[in-house]
Amino acid sequence: MVADKGYHSGSTVQATAEVPARTYIPEPKRQPRKWAGKAAERKAVYDNRRRVRGIYGKRLLKKRGELVERSFAHCYKTGGMRRLHLRGRESVLKRQLIHVGAFNLSLILRRSLGAGTPRELHNRQAELIFAILCLHTALKMAARPLRRIWTAPLCKSRATRSRLAPRRRHRISGGCATGC
């Protein structure tokens, strides 16, 4: 069980130690504790402390921060849920459910499509079309020198060169002053 340091108390850690579960709850900064008559609680707290300081415990707490805390921070600060003014607790809970559901939907879209919002998906489509056009232009430019290499004369006589070289048609200028 991975939790925030606000959930750390001796009785909580001891209760979860009795159930077949391991706790990874960081300890808040507090005064030295007095363990007189609390041997089981002391053992549970010290075991939890040892697990939290280990490599696996640090990895779990980092993952909790990335997945859980970041999403709450996004919903409450950026999403404006901290200053929510509605009448009734049920209305607040409905608004929270819709807001967090939309956030989870954006995570699903980002995972499956690579875009979290419809606007971002639209921009990605434009980027994809632009990338395809750039690739097409680059391939056309790369093919030009290769054509010259492939059509180069194999022997040095003038007659053979003229036969192998591609014919170039020159445009005859019309009556326009610009040559169009």
Description:
Helix 1 (10-18) crosses helix 2 (39-53). The protein has a domain at 1-68. The protein has 6 helices and no strands. It starts with 9 loop residues before the first helix and ends in a 16-residue tail after the last helix. It is mainly alpha-helical and 180 residues long.
In short:
This protein has about 180 residues and is an all-alpha fold. Helix content is about 65%, strand content about 0%.
pLDDT averaged over residues:
78
Quaternary class: single chain
Shape, per Cα inertia axes: elongated
pLDDT < 50 stretches: none
Helix content: 55-70%
Please report which band the strand proportion falls in: under 5%, 5-15%, 15-25%, 25-35%, 35-45% or over 45%.
under 5%
Based on DSSP secondary structure assignment, what is the total number of beta strands? 0
Distance between the termini: 78 Å
| Rounded Rg | 35 Å
In terms of structural class, how would the helical and strand content be classed?
mainly alpha
Write the H/E string, N to C.
HHHHHH
Number of helical segments with 4 or more residues: 6
Biggest sheet descriptor: none
